[in-house]
């Protein structure tokens, strides 16, 4: 991942490094998309594979017209450029339904699971499989 705020001032420096990394078959995400001041130029200039929409846009995306429009158009723009889209920080079913209906590729957040240390992940998966199936069907 490359964060948008870090990349804004370092596009020329990052570009060849990202190309080298991608040459190894590694995918690159532009994290915290929408929090910086030059998002569109970053989409044009950085050879990323995926953008991650910052959770600050998702808290009100299903409720506020302006934010909803930003998220909808960000997903459409990213897909038009060939990028996949990750929504970060999803906490409720309304936002999940909104993002699914707009074609968001990957949805992350506390709705599914809090951040866990590695040693707790397998235990969590085993105890929450049924709950996750319910959310996937919703």
From TrEMBL:
Domain EAL: 1-129
Short name of any one Pfam family annotated for the protein: EAL
Residues annotated as transmembrane: none
InterPro entries recorded: Cyclic-di-GMP_PDE-like, EAL_dom, EAL_sf
Molecular function terms from GO: cyclic-guanylate-specific phosphodiesterase activity
Classification via CDD domains: EAL (cd01948)
Entries under PANTHER family matching the protein: CYCLIC DI-GMP PHOSPHODIESTERASE PDED-RELATED, CYCLIC DI-GMP PHOSPHODIESTERASE PDEF
Descriptive protein name: EAL domain protein
Naturally occurring in which organism (per UniProt): Vibrio harveyi
């Amino acid at each position: 991942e490359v964060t948008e705020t870090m990349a804004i001032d370092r596009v020329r420096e990052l570009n060849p490094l990202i190309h080298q990394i991608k040459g190894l078959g590694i995918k690159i995400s532009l994290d915290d998309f929408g929090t910086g001041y030059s998002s569109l130029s970053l989409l044009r200039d950085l050879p990323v594979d995926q953008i991650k929409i910052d959770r600050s846009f998702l808290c009100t995306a299903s409720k506020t017209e302006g934010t909803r429009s930003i998220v909808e158009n960000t997903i459409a723009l990213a897909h038009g450029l060939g990028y996949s889209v990750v929504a970060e920080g999803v906490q409720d079913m309304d936002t999940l339904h909104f993002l699914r209906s707009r074609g968001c590729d990957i949805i992350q957040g506390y709705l599914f699971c809090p951040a866990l240390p590695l040693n707790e992940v397998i235990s969590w998966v085993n105890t929450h499989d049924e709950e996750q199936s319910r959310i996937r069907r919703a």
